[in-house]
Specification:
The protein has 231 residues and is an alpha+beta fold. The chain contains four helices and four strands. Helix content is 75%, strand content 11%. Strands 1-2-3-4 form a four-stranded antiparallel beta sheet. A hairpin with a 5-residue loop joins strand 3 and strand 4. Helix 3 runs antiparallel to helix 4. The longest helix has 139 residues.
Length: 231
């Protein structure tokens, strides 16, 4: 029933259209209708041309948008690379600054070591000078000790002095009694050997360091050797 109704409506519509054209022809005439149709066709053609033109413009616009998007992506990538390069550059600068600080610290340490070394050299030079002066004084006393105490003073290796006493043992006057003396790093007297050994040598050494009375030190050692010879 629905299909029959639809077909009837179509037939009715076609009939009405025919009547409409018949009336239109009777009112306007064939020429006006032709002009109208020509105008319609011209409008259609213009619309078609304009549509094609705008379609082309739209395609160009799409291409332009794609190009802009491509450029935007490229700019974004370049921005990322620039950011990465800036971070790398910052890291390099940080490393350079750290190395400069380490270099400055090393330079300061070297300078401190140089100054400390110079001070130590001055101290060593001063001690060496004092040691040489003491050795010279001891050598100058050589004649006095030899004459009064029967003492012979010899300079041996490592800037040491050997003191050899004779005329101590009444049974054997030529028998040597000796001790060796040096100046240590602290600038103090130090007995490095004693023949024959004396129990009191450490006491004598401590006393001469306190009093700096070297003549009494030598005399006390000779007395100790003499006392030992009677045992």
């Amino acid at each position: 029933m629905a299909n029959v109704k639809t077909e009837d409506e179509i037939i009715l519509f076609e009939r009405e259209m025919k009547e409409f054209w018949t009336k239109l022809k009777s009112v306007y005439g064939t020429e006006q209708i032709s002009q109208t149709l020509a105008l319609r066709d011209s409008c259609k053609e213009s619309i078609k041309v304009l549509s094609e033109k705008w379609s082309k413009k739209l395609k160009e616009g799409d291409l332009m948008i794609d190009k802009i998007q491509e450029y935007s992506n490229e700019i974004l990538q370049q921005s990322r690379r620039i950011s990465e390069n800036q971070e790398h550059l910052t890291e390099i600068k940080s490393n350079v600054n750290r190395e400069e600080e380490q270099k400055k610290g090393l330079t300061d340490s070297i300078q401190e070591l140089k100054e400390e070394l110079m001070k130590k050299k001055e101290i060593i030079s001063s001690k060496n000078k004092a040691t040489k002066e003491r050795v010279e004084r001891l050598c100058k006393s050589k004649v006095l000790f030899e004459e009064r105490l029967g003492l012979e003073i010899r300079r041996i290796h490592n800037e040491q002095l050997q003191f050899v006493f004779r005329h101590i043992d009444h049974k054997d006057p030529d028998k040597p009694y000796a001790f060796t003396l040096s100046i240590n790093e602290q600038g103090d007297y130090e007995v490095t050997s004693c023949t024959p050994p004396l129990d009191c040598i450490a006491e004598f050494q401590l006393k001469v360091r306190e009093t700096n009375n070297f003549s009494a030190f030598v005399a006390n050692i000779r007395k100790a050797f003499t006392a030992l010879s009677y045992k």
